[in-house]
Amino acid sequence: MPRPATSRLDVRKTYKLYVGGAFPRSESGRTYAVVDGKGSFLANAAQGSRKDARDAVVAARKAFPGWAGATAYNRGQVLYRVAEVMEGRREQFAAEVAAAEGVTARVAQSTVDTAIDRWVWYAGWTDKIAQVVGNANPVAGPYFNLSVPEPTGVVAVLAPQRSALLGLVSVVAPVLAGGSTCVVLASEDRPLPAVVLGEVLATSDVPAGVVNILTGRTAELAPWLAEHRDVNAIDLCGGDPEQAVELERSAADNIKRVLRAGEPDWTSDPGLLRLTAWLETKTVWHPMGV
Amino acid sequence: MSTGTLPDVSRDDASLRAFLHGLPGVDQVGAEARAAMLSTRSIKTTSKQWAIDTAISMIDLTTLEGADTPGKVRNLCAKARRPDPGDPTTPQVAAVCVYGDLVATAKEALGDSGVHVAAVATAFPSGRASLTVKLADTKDAVAAGADEIDMVIDRGAFLSGRYLQVFEEIVAVKQASAPAHLKVILETGELATYDNVRRAAWLAMLADADFIKTSTGKISPAATLPVLLVMLEAVRDFRASTGRQVGVKPAGGIRTSKDAIRHLVMVNETVGEEWLSPDWFRFGASTLLNDLLLQRQKLATGHYSGPDYITLD
To answer: Does the domain made of B13-305 have the CATH classification 2.160.10.10?
Structure first.
């Protein structure tokens, strides 16, 4: 970065984790250098450890009852608010995306816009998904029998490695829209847009602990989350395809919901796949006839 | 009286006051710094395994709610006998701690398991009742089969300087509670200063307490590490001058394994290994056991466990 003409000191930012609504350093004290698309130094990011992952799961579990219990309408408002706050920081996000992904300013700007639109898209779905995947089931008697979607719980998300912002939003927003909470492993080589997103989430009505963002080595942390008994689901999206087999095996051992590794085209219509992946269906008989 | 080589300091109010106020003052900053320093110790692998099992075996599994029911106490007793049904190597806890009216229920549920029943008595938690009522409360619990009595001191009397009254109450309750063990709750959260904690600890030990306990768990702050340090120093010095060993029980606010291990480190560094047994050191806790079990499962299996894998109460 060129020095300004006045002899002002560079205010360099030390990036940290986002856990339980706070920005702690890694418990391990480790950091790693983040470089841009051309290999020049951008910043140091915290290199999270398994204990940071453990703490993040505790925070996500603690936040779950409140977030799952919020009305779908309220969750929609909160998600829309995230879009609002991101809109106010478009330039910053565009610069982060351009640096992280090595794309032109134009492409970066359009990526940020799509990411903001994605929050709005999922915000709209929060109070409509029940009508689409729920049902009033026909039964042989004068009773109601209802199937309603319920959030799965704590979801571990291995964020996409290449699409540092749009991909990240596209995997985190559906978790939140359904009422689950999450622990996200940000893109290993491109973590900075994720950290800035953490700063947005911290100031946009999303309750503390609903989203927890860890930066660091995905391959190091993913097994701890896959094996963790208090994580209900895992999105292997940005995981290493070779490691994914082992992760799926670990996840099966404790009956996690699993979305398999692989990154779709994030600019296309996301559909309901990721939204319904983190929903369970509860079917109840209404005990009284009419 | 078994005050050993100590002069008969409890013959009247004046000599008791002179003795208690003659105890050296506590260096508050020093105590807090020492507690903070000891809590940075890192305990790993086999030491951690040992510490977790030891901590489990030291727990007085406690339920002291107005809403306690016989069913809840029976659940707690089942958990006390087999904290982790999935792992038979898990040690039993030391005791179950309940209100006096539930002692019989707990006693029956625990049977011959070796887990003790502790009852809180003497108008717990405030201690605001006449001596007659306190003694009746105590005898009631002992008659129902309590192995240990947790009494509260009269903080009002202590803070207004009527030390002999507090002393005589403890002596009377000690007689009424025989053959049960007597734990004396100082309620350090209400004693205001570390000097008072030291005096109250000595007062209880002079009056023949078997254990001194930090808190009822109903007042915040409850057990803190500096307070524990002061109390451990008191039992150490008391044994040095009288030859009698007294146990210590921190209670209230200890919720994580890390906290519990910090307490054990403090015990080891202050009074030594002789106190590292359920006979001389206890944790008054309810949710602590769950966290210890989660950590124990983590060490046994290599992966983090969750609340779905233990019994919640």
So the answer is: no
